[in-house]
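Final report, results section. Input specification for complex C-07:
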Amino acid sequence: MADFDPIVVRKADGCWLTTTDGRRLFDGVSSLWCNVHGHRHPKIDAAIRDQLDRVAHVTTLGMSAETTEILATRLAEVTPGDLAHTFFSSDGASAVEAALKMAFQYWRQTPMPQPEKTQFLALGGAYHGDTTGAVSLGGIEYFHQLFAPILFSPIRGPVPCTYRVPEEVDPLEFYLSQFRELLHDHHHQLAAVVMEPLVQGAAGMITHPVGLLSAVRELCDEFNVLMVVDEVATGFGRTGRLFACEHESVTPDILCLGKGLTGGYLPMAATIARPHVFDAFLAPATDSKQFFHGHTFSGNPLAAAAAIASIELFDETDLVASVDQKANHLRKRLSGLLNHPNVGDIRGRGLMVGIEIVADRETKTPFDSNRQIGRNVCRAAVDRGVWVRPLTDVIVAMPPLVATMEELDILASAVIESIEQVLDQQP
Ligand SMILES: *Cc1c(COP(=O)(O)O)cnc(C)c1O
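Structure output:
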């Protein structure tokens, strides 16, 4: 942090943050991709206050809270297909850890056990959080490579990127044939395929070819491998549907949710299983088939109250339906950047947008990382009143879903001007 400019927030309102030194900043990355309805939304605030008058926390180990039960029922209703049984935790990484252990234990306890299924297939560029199991799945060298000596090794799939793909191939076919080969070769050992759907956020808004998710679902069925989908970033409206899986009519066997679950208010995550997974764990206590996993703050009622209020807001408004229109508006405003010699790609789905800066557009070569282009662009945006945070040289635009068209214009202008300013200074 030796060259760090601290920004300390005193309060916030809607999509705007007020810092202790009196600046007002537009929250251009939804407080790290989780804020949905804006800050200090009256309905979510009231739900938390109301819950506080009843109980702040009880355990879900051996008992439960009424509000948490209501949330579990609501999640079963709003998630795709027959996803129905929720294990609660406090952050996205923990939701993924639970999914890994659940998938592993499932193959030991299903009516036709296959205990040799102990491995996972993860994508190139995968990001599933920063705990050790989640980092083992991770495929971002810069974040993950250092820890290799303490990690397990997944079977590594391709980075299904539509920007860096050989020119003469059909991207979907190209990546799918690699997935097919890996599943063909390894399905006997594979407990699950774990993937982020449509967009791999932390990898730099890597955007998949349309149809990949549903095709991987078919491969998982064909080769009898569980499918774990990590919607920690894409869930709750971000891509223009409540869940990204809905774009391709996919129901994973296990779904991981986090970030936007509470509207971005409180730490809560969920690992949601379909009945065939749940049933493998359902037995009298003496059979010891229960899921051997628990967290002190699982299902915290204050967080559950926020989550219920957030889901009700989706029911009461056309927020999800508005995302496509807002995304088109933002894309249109940013599209002029495609003429800039250092803007290689603008990608993403819905209000999950990445702008990749490159040294050479023809060869798609990045700048030397010591130049800190992404970071400098984001600093310039802060000077213009917009808080954004880069992923190396990919500028992320990921505003709260409630952002207005005018606010999206402010975000776009700041990003465009900052890119021009920083790159004009480059030799
Ligand atoms: C942020 C993120 C996680 C990790 O969530 P935390 O709450 O930070 O632990 C996992 N998966 C994806 C896809 C994410 O974007």
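Residues 101 and 293 are 8 Å apart (CA to CA). The first strand starts at residue 9 and ends at 13. This concludes the modelling results for the funded period.
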